[in-house]
Design a protein that fits this description.
The chain is of the alpha+beta class.
Length: about 325
């Protein structure tokens, strides 16, 4: 624990206590010697004008109540671990999509760096200690700022949305509800006024987003969670089937520790294999994840999902024959 951390912790200790705090407890909480505790107290008095007094009758330290208002540390005060956490989040955002929020986050990063340097914590070195790998990520698109602003302001948007399956672009009016970062890509949960229902849009295929002053249609958090987490994958909706997947004993060592869906059911079988049951509405994303497991998984049910996987495997076999 460094000096700034100890000042921060001593302030919290004195502010929270209704009675003078004994020196022994200060040493214990600050994990320091008697001499160090005395130096911290003197530094707070000298440099921060902290009204710390020693109560001889109760043999402890406290903030002097005669000073009037409760003493607070000047400015924004973080200990080293909190600053590292903030810088880690900033680094995460910059690495996930470089330049996405660079203009907005730059002042925060500079301020954090200054605070870390003041505490001799070496903020610049932290960036080299964080490695974030992205896989199959797509750019968030030029409309990210407009979409994020509309979400915050709770205003409707006019968007030009490209549908890859049908190879067409459709103009829609939507009420943006929340941004979702899923598998290294950005999506928007929204109410589509064209289709009169909840929809999920991939931000990378929104070519234009025009904000309006029309209030968005608001949907409760519980309704959104029920709709979007009830079935498997990003494009969920109400579940229509339950996939039953059986993994080999070898692969089960990894799968048993994974969460494929919040409402999944699982069980170990006598031969050491592992059975996972997942509710789903649309099969493409689920089939893609099943095929990634290769020969280590078998679709047990429903029969329709099993047939779809078989058809994919037969087409793959035709390519490689």
């Amino acid at each position: 624990m460094d000096r700034f951390d100890r000042i921060f912790d001593l302030h919290k200790l004195l502010s929270a206590s209704r009675h003078p705090v004994p020196r022994q407890r200060i040493e214990q909480e600050l994990e320091c010697s008697r001499a160090t505790a005395k130096r911290i107290i003197e530094a707070m008095r000298l440099y921060l004008n902290a009204p710390i007094k020693y109560d001889r009758q109760r043999n402890g330290y406290c903030y002097d109540p005669e000073e009037g208002e409760m003493f607070e540390l000047p400015g924004v005060w973080f200990n080293a671990s909190e600053l590292f956490a903030l810088l880690s989040v900033q680094q995460l955002l910059s690495e996930v999509h470089p330049g996405l929020l660079e203009r907005q986050l730059s002042p925060l990063k500079e301020r954090i760096d200054e605070l870390l340097k003041a505490q001799h914590a070496g903020g610049n070195e932290l960036n080299s200690r964080i490695r974030i790998l992205r896989a199959a990520s797509r750019p968030a698109g030029e409309s990210f700022q407009a979409v994020a602003g509309a979400v915050a302001r709770q205003k409707r948007l006019l968007i030009d949305h490209y549908n890859r399956s049908r190879d067409e672009t459709i103009r829609r009016e939507i009420s943006p509800l929340r941004l979702v970062h899923y598998r290294d890509n950005w999506y928007l949960d929204a109410w589509c006024h064209l289709r009169e229902g909840l929809r999920t849009f991939s931000l990378d295929v929104i070519s234009r987003a025009t904000p309006t002053e029309e209030p968005a249609r608001l949907i409760s958090e519980s309704t959104l969670d029920d709709y979007y987490t009830s079935a498997y994958g990003i494009f969920s909706g109400d579940p229509k089937e339950t996939a039953v997947l059986r993994f080999t004993p070898q692969r089960a060592r990894w799968i048993a520790a994974e969460q494929w869906h919040p409402r999944q059911q699982s069980r170990w079988l006598d031969d050491g294999s592992y059975e996972l049951s997942i509710p789903y509405s649309q099969s493409p994303e689920l089939i893609s994840d099943i095929l990634k497991q290769g020969p280590d998984v078998e679709v047990m049910a429903p029969a329709s999902l099993r047939r779809e996987v078989i058809q994919r495997l037969l087409k793959m076999n035709e390519i490689y024959q």
